[in-house]
Amino acid sequence: MSSLVFDLLIALVIVAGLVGAVVQIVPGGLVVGLAVVVWGAVTGGTLGWTVAALSVVLAVAGIVLKYLLAGRYLQRRGVPNRSLLVGAVLGVVGFFVIPVVGLFIGFIGGTYLSELQRLGDAQAARRATGHAMKATGISILVELALALVTALAWLGAVLVVRV
């Protein structure tokens, strides 16, 4: 396989990972990071291995930061992990019951129902569900930002190697 074809395949996997970081169906940051590690291992040399190591650091940082920041946000707003777990379980069920949008409907509905049961107040449950949705947005932005930095580092390395 030519180096151009290989680079294009890696680019496609990176694009799939970036999409995954937004839609949250696949772990986008991890996919981008692994694609760059494969590229670095095949390319070799100081640049290839440096970019591969950087992608591992960024992928791990993305995983840790997205949970820390979202968790801290939810903790400050008083939304317990149990409600998120119920939302996640119903999101997975929803994904299979209603393709594509079921994940989101299940997560929102599950979080709302859990908070309604816990708080006994529909208004407070809606507020808590809104906080859970904002925390999800925070985690998406963190993962996407670090995946984009990884992709840009890879692109820069490709341009250095191929030009």
UniProtKB/TrEMBL annotation:
Transmembrane ranges, per UniProt, are 9-42, 48-71, 83-108, 138-161
Which Pfam families does the record cross-reference, listed alphabetically?
DUF456
Query: Which keywords appear in this protein's UniProt record, sorted alphabetically?
Result: Membrane, Transmembrane, Transmembrane helix
Has UniProt tagged this entry with the keyword Transmembrane helix? yes
Q: Which InterPro entries match?
A: DUF456 (IPR007403)
Q: What is this protein called?
A: DUF456 domain-containing protein
Q: Which organism is it from?
A: Aeromicrobium flavum
